[in-house]
Design brief:
This protein has helices spanning 17-22, 65-74, 91-105, 122-131, 148-154, 170-182, 200-205, 221-235, 244-262, and strands spanning 2-5, 9-12, 27-33, 55-57, 60-62, 79-84, 110-115, 135-138, 158-165, 187-192, 239-242, 269-270, 276-282, 285-291, 300-304. The protein is α/β, with parallel strands linked by helices. It folds into two domains: 2-258, TIM Barrel (Alpha-Beta Barrel), CATH 3.20.20.70; 267-304, no CATH class. An eleven-stranded mixed β-sheet has the order 1-2-11-10-9-8-7-6-3-4-5. Strands 12-13-14-15 form a four-stranded antiparallel β-sheet. A hairpin with a 2-residue loop joins strand 4 (55-57) and strand 5 (60-62). Helix 3 runs parallel beside helix 4. The structure holds iron/sulfur cluster (SF4). Iron/sulfur cluster (SF4) binds at residues 36, 38-40, 43, 45, 84-86, 116, 141.
């Protein structure tokens, strides 16, 4: 049976553990490196990160494992997702990150990793498992990489696939899902294809357009996902459709709310949107100021404080 809704997501079967923690914004997003051996036309990674060997935790750049752990602790995360680029292009670093997370946050701290599978050899997967990885998600940029699902299962990892969906990609998606299920995948995530600054030109050149009904999303991506979900339902495959709006309106806002609550200074008030507000004296006037709970607190002046009653 299909559950959920168009805004928060639709799913058949159980959600992957990584997705269950993502919903309340309890996962830190660790961008472990921007290096990648692929060049997907739909790549949504910002050009200030893609192909650059940089590390970020959520919206903060970090330059050491120590700084990374502090940033994860600052938001009170209960788990993390490791992403990139392709994290397996920096395998040793990922192993270090996993060990540091498990050592400082405990064995129950859930970590999933997202990779193309291009470099997911038995040896690499065993190293990830030994370092404490709980779940791996493959975005196979070539059909040959789907085999990595089987290898991941053999070393004892929870494994599944996470792929984008848009019109004309349904048969490609079904092919990957069919093969992944035969190899022991326990979940499938379909990401509604976003259209944003990094990929807009390439998508427009291929005839894709932005949806009028669903901002920043490729026209027809939701309907394409529905067609794959209906097929998966008949087959009895556990497939989850993750709408692009979910990331902004639910996941990111919940993460900011969590961070604002935990990391506020004595004079800052959290708002329902996950920002912080306070009052400053500027030019003899009391002005209300707002910022996201990033370390830098990039502030926006909202105007004079309303008079007290
Ligand atoms: S594999 Fe991922 S990071 Fe690399 S180009 Fe494709 S979408 Fe971008």
């Amino acid at each position: 049976m299909m559950r959920g809704d168009e805004r928060k997501g639709l799913f058949i079967g159980e959600l992957a553990r990584g997705c269950q923690l993502c919903f309340p914004g309890a996962k830190a997003v660790i961008f472990v490196t921007g290096t990648c051996d692929d060049a997907c036309f739909y790549c949504p990674v910002s050009r200030e990160r893609l192909y650059r060997d940089v590390m970020w935790v959520n919206e903060e750049p970090v330059s050491s494992l120590e700084e990374l752990v502090i940033e994860v602790q600052r938001m009170g995360a209960r788990g993390a997702s490791i992403t990139g680029g392709d994290p397996l292009t920096a395998l040793d670093r990922v192993v270090g990150v996993l060990m540091a997370l498990k050592e400082n946050l405990g064995e129950d701290f859930h970590v999933h990793l997202y990779t193309t599978g291009r470099q997911a050899t038995h040896e690499a997967l065993r190293a990830l498992r030994r370092a404490g990885l709980d779940e791996i998600r493959f975005h196979p940029t070539s059909p040959a990489f789907v085999k990595a699902v089987g290898r991941a299962r053999e070393v004892g990892l929870q494994a599944g696939v996470e792929i984008p969906i848009a019109p004309r990609m349904e048969e490609w998606a079904k092919g990957i899902i069919e093969r992944a299920m035969k190899l022991g995948a326990s979940f499938v995530n379909l990401n509604e294809m976003e259209i944003a600054e990094p990929n807009a030109r390439a998508l427009l050149a291929r005839g894709y357009r932005e949806s009028r009904r669903r901002p920043f999303v490729v026209e027809g991506a939701y309907e394409a996902a529905l067609r794959v979900l209906e097929w998966a339902q008949e087959k009895g495959y556990p497939v989850h459709f993750c709408p692009a709006s979910f990331k902004d309106s639910v996941q990111t806002r919940n993460r900011f709310r969590r961070l604002a609550e935990l990391d506020r200074r004595w004079y800052e008030e959290p708002t329902p949107e996950g920002t912080l507000r306070w009052t400053e004296e500027i030019g003899g006037k009391r002005v209300v100021v707002e910022a996201h709970p990033t370390r830098e607190r990039t502030r926006v002046e909202l105007g004079e404080e309303p008079p007290y009653d």
